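Recall the central idea of this unit: under ordinary conditions, the amino acid sequence of a chain determines the structure it adopts. In this exercise we apply that idea directly, starting from the sequence alone.
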Amino acid sequence: MKKLIYNKIFESVQGSGFHAGTLQTFIRLAGCDMRCPIRKVCDEPDSLNHSGEELNAEDYENLISKPGSEWIHWTGGEPAQFQTGIECLRNKCTRKNIKHHIQTSGLIAIENEFDWLTVSPKSLELIQNTGDELILVCGPWVRFEYLKRFISETEFKFYYLQPLEVAGRYNFEKTFEFAQRSGWKMTGQLHKQWGAR
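Accordingly, the structure predicted from this sequence is:
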């Protein structure tokens, strides 16, 4: 079992997808072994390596005992690499009414049960092709025909396109055009515009 090494823990408003506007406690796990087309422009480059602090059961119990958010959002890095550790923490904790949201690239199968599963694919080849929402960052590698392929080969409740940010600039035009033509919904990193982390 891989240790749960985290890069950041913070409380913020979820900025994208179905739960946009919902207060969540984010645990940004450190480490991502996936190779993807937008790795060089990853918006969380510090979380790609495996350096950080270990999250143990006592720390986690203290974290979820604080008033406020009823959601823990596991992100990264690639949190799917650490499912066993996440499940062990959940089983040891006394507070059971916390909801768990995991966000993954979809390149590793999700074997544990989460209350909300977001897949944000970085390639066409998904191992995890079912879940609650698919949020596709509309990067240079994305072609319009990919959107039809995702619809036909996956099963999600919601499909979202999100503009890619590079050096503070977003490709709104391409994202809007693809969303209009495909029927996908647009989303974004709205927490940044709201002044949240």
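DSSP finds five helices and eleven strands in the chain.
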